[in-house]
Every structure is written in structure tokens, then in C-alpha cells.
Write a structure and sequence with these properties.
11 strands; FHA_dom; FHA domain-containing protein
Length: about 250
């Protein structure tokens, strides 16, 4: 059973605040509101790798079981796709219990740890240790949370999806968080594959034109009959050839 009581959180720092979510966050109700500070990109070889293995996920394709965050110091979770041109990877969960921008997992260089922040979601972000089913909700509904440290094999739950967190100090994945070796078939995409250059819309229009052309048979038959009539009327005498009733 999930608990609605926040667990122990590290000391607050202004850089932990993130904008986002479905509603206006209630951060302003806290004493001392701060503005968002951008995370400084960290070289890929300066922190342990973090990978997420699906334990339960009704809204992710069955073949996708692994999110590889190697080389990124931040990844978002949300129901919506990333905005066009966004450089921050996002794991998209098409779940009504997941907010448009639900949570952010990031490498905290100051504390040298991976942490997760709820961005003010309605249904919450939950973290638990190992097989413990009594996971802690990071914050109340529509309130951004304090950062929560993630440990190796923690469970991270958002809506109907639960990930097993794999953190490896030696930057070598274990057998459970290694890709299958079949290309990217089992990897959860970190970026939207929707094209933003208008090609997708053009392809859709072409597809519709091809579909519409298959429904033009009656109209094309009428045009062919009218053309035949026109040619016959242009014959010398301008009359149709005589036909028998049987014809």
C-alpha cells in the first residue's frame, strides 16, 4: 500500500525547483520562493550510469523493457511528448494518471547522487526500496516535491508504471539492465520520433489522397460515359449509332 506521507528529504536547494505539471504549483505558498536554476551539463564519464528496467507498465509497448540514460544528467517523465527541439530526453507514458510533465530524474553533482523530483503532478510519484510495496509518495497532489535520493534497485512508480532503478558506480551495466543485443527493439525511446519539418503532415495528406482515389470509381465511370457520349456526338451526323433492344 502506498503512503501519502513524504519520506526524509535532503536539505533544500534552489536549484531543485522545476516548473511544469498540469496545474500551477503551490511552491509559491512556501516561504522563500526561488526561481529555477538550470542544471549544468556533466560530462558523461563523471557520474554513475542510471538505467530503468520495467517491472510493471501497461502503457509501454511490451517489447520495450529498458530505458538507457547513459550520457544524460537529466531525464523527464510525462504524458506529453517533448516540445519540438527539446534537448532533454523524456520518457513518455500515455497514462491519464501521469501529468503532462510529471517528474524529473537527475544527477545531483553537488551531492553526487541520482535523485528524482515530482514536478507537481496530480497523482504523485512514489519511491520504495527493493521489493517493499509500501512506497513513499514524494509530495501532495499538485505540489512539487523535494528531491528524493535514488538507490540501486529502488522502485520508482508513476501512474501504472513501475521502474526498477539500476545505478552502477563502475559504469558497467549488469545482466538485468543490459540491452538484448537486438538493436533498439527493447529500448524505451527517450525522444519523440514525430517529425517537426512538416513531412509527416505531407505524408498524411498523400495517404488521404490515395485513400480518396479508391472511392472515385462511380465518379470516374460517369466521366468516362460523358466522354464517350461527347465523342459519339462528334461523329458525322451527330447521332448515336442504332442499337437493338437486346443491346
Amino acid at each position: 500500500m502506498r503512503s501519502d506521507v513524504s519520506g526524509n528529504s535532503p536539505t533544500y536547494h534552489p536549484s531543485y525547483e522545476f516548473p511544469g505539471g498540469d496545474e500551477i504549483h503551490e511552491i509559491s505558498s512556501r516561504p522563500g520562493t526561488h526561481t529555477h536554476t538550470e542544471l549544468t551539463p556533466t560530462p558523461a564519464n563523471d557520474f554513475p550510469i542510471c538505467r530503468l528496467v520495467i517491472q510493471e507498465g501497461r502503457f509501454i509497448a511490451k517489447k520495450c523493457r529498458l530505458a538507457v540514460i547513459d550520457g544524460y544528467s537529466e531525464v523527464q517523465f510525462g504524458r506529453d511528448a517533448s516540445p519540438p527541439g527539446a534537448g532533454t530526453p523524456r520518457i513518455r507514458l500515455k497514462d491519464m494518471e501521469v501529468s503532462k510533465l510529471h517528474a524529473t530524474l537527475f544527477w545531483d553533482a553537488e551531492r553526487a547522487e541520482w535523485a528524482v523530483v515530482d514536478m507537481g503532478s496530480k497523482h504523485g510519484t512514489f519511491v520504495g526500496s527493493g521489493e517493499d510495496t509500501n512506497r513513499v509518495r514524494l509530495s501532495a497532489s499538485r505540489v512539487a516535491s523535494m528531491p528524493k535520493r535514488l538507490k540501486h534497485l529502488d522502485r520508482l512508480s508513476l501512474g501504472g508504471t513501475t521502474f526498477v532503478v539500476h545505478i552502477h558506480e563502475n559504469r558497467l551495466p549488469c545482466s538485468e539492465c543490459s540491452a538484448s543485443g537486438q538493436g533498439s527493439d527493447d529500448l524505451i525511446p527517450l525522444f519523440s520520433h514525430q517529425r517537426d519539418d512538416g513531412t509527416a503532415a505531407q505524408d498524411e495528406r498523400s495517404r488521404k489522397r490515395r485513400a480518396d482515389s479508391s472511392n472515385d470509381a462511380p465518379r470516374n465511370a460517369k466521366r468516362a460515359l460523358a466522354s464517350l457520349k461527347h465523342r459519339l456526338l462528334r461523329r458525322p451526323g451527330g447521332v448515336f449509332p442504332a442499337v437493338s433492344p437486346h443491346d
